[in-house]
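Input structure tokens:
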């Protein structure tokens, strides 16, 4: 079924989402960056019976592999779609959760101004386990410039309501929007942390055709953050959230032929998270080496960290070489980053 997409989050191991994309339907806005048809790769909203069929078909495959899945309604603004349609979809999902033990819950994404106690009661009655708010920024200036149609205060209010309902809170942010700055993004992260979400998704802006951002980009009025600037920023965001026990369950848009076809600019890389994690390791290595004289060193690290330590296309080794440190990376179980001068080995 075209409306579905399945992925496993790296940090949750055998936990996956069966993502069901609900396109633009129900959304009264046209945010500067959004062309939901491109992002969700679909134009037709799925019917409840298609969802039931898909979940029934997927259940044996998930059970066989011992994978537990959440049924995730992503794409548009789930709580803003016509109420009857929303409850039909929830009915289908909740029936699957009751029938197949491999489905552990239901999650959805929506706008901060489409949350109320009334809607939360409905979601809860169908067993909704997590709601992700597309906050995008906590700067009112950025929200306004990108025609989001809601304020940072709306995000705060919705977050409080969701947490009060007992449903897990997730927050989504973007970087590099029109009129955005690195400082704004770091401020957004700090404001998110105050709202205590369980999870966060970070999406560097991808500029798509058929959007207002696309037009601003083509006219030269707007340019997003560079790739390198975004990697540095995301490294900082990732560390900030992790220090506060908030899981970053996604960094960067999923690889998709539709996005690749319609992309005009911005930051899009299928291995973005790996690159960002590698940048974090580079920072740590730089910090340790700074205290040591320039020269030849061996860095020991365990198997899990080898590729992050070396960096994509040996990026970290190359950068350290430019600073006068000639590094060899070797695998050693139990080590994270042990720096040893070559002559001591
Ligand atoms: S609210 Fe969401 S679905 Fe609606 S235009 Fe904005 S990004 Fe797109």
């Amino acid at each position: 079924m075209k409306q579905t997409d399945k992925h496993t989050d790296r940090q949750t191991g055998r936990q996956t989402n069966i993502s069901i994309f609900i396109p633009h339907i129900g959304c009264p806005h046209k945010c500067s960056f959004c062309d939901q048809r491109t992002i969700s790769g679909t134009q037709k909203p799925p019917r409840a019976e298609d969802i039931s069929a898909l979940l029934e078909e997927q259940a044996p495959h998930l059970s066989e592999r011992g994978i537990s899945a959440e049924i995730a309604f992503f794409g548009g603004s789930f709580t803003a779609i016509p109420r009857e349609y929303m409850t039909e979809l929830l009915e289908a999902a909740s029936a699957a959760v009751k029938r197949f033990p491999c489905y552990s819950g239901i999650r959805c994404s929506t706008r901060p101004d489409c949350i109320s106690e009334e809607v939360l009661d409905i979601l809860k009655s169908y067993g909704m386990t997590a709601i992700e708010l597309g906050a995008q920024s906590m700067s009112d200036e950025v929200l306004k410039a990108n025609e989001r149609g809601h304020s940072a205060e709306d995000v705060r209010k919705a977050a409080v309501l969701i947490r009060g309902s007992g449903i897990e809170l997730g927050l989504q942010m973007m970087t590099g929007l029109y009129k955005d700055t690195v400082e704004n993004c770091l401020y957004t992260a700090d404001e998110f942390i105050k709202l205590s979400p369980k999870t966060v998704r970070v999406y560097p802006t991808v500029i798509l055709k058929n959007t207002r951002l696309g037009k601003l980009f083509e006219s030269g009025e707007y340019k997003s953050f560079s790739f390198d600037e975004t990697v540095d920023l995301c490294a900082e965001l990732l560390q900030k959230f992790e220090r506060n026990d908030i899981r970053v369950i996604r960094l960067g848009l999923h690889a998709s032929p539709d996005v690749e076809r319609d992309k005009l600019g911005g930051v899009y890389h299928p291995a973005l998270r790996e690159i960002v994690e590698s940048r974090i390791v580079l920072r740590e290595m730089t910090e340790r080496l700074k205290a040591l004289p320039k020269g030849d060193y061996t860095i020991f690290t365990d198997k899990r960290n080898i590729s992050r330590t070396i960096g994509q296309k040996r990026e970290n080794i190359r950068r350290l070489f430019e600073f006068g440190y000639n590094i060899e990376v070797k695998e050693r179980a139990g080590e994270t980053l042990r720096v040893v001068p070559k002559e001591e080995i």
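Residues 24, 27, 29-31, 34, 36, 76-77, 111, 134 surround iron/sulfur cluster (CB under 6 Å). Residues 89 and 210 are 29 Å apart (CA to CA).
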